[in-house]
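Got a spare moment? Tell me how you read both lines of this record:
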Amino acid sequence: MTTFSSTTATADVVTADLNPRGNPMLLEENLARSRMREAEISAERQRLAHRLVVARRWRRLAGWAERRAALKARAL
């Protein structure tokens, strides 16, 4: 990436990065995109963990129902 500097009316230096398409991207925008991507990755991991917990719960419930059905079948 190529970086360049420009000055604003208050003489503060603003650094921007050029993305591969050549559009200037301000540091704040780059940071926001990075944080958004980190949030997406975190949400994806959380969804996966939730799905694993739910699958484990259903497996336990199915085992309990199977054992209960077997007990009732023997009682008949």
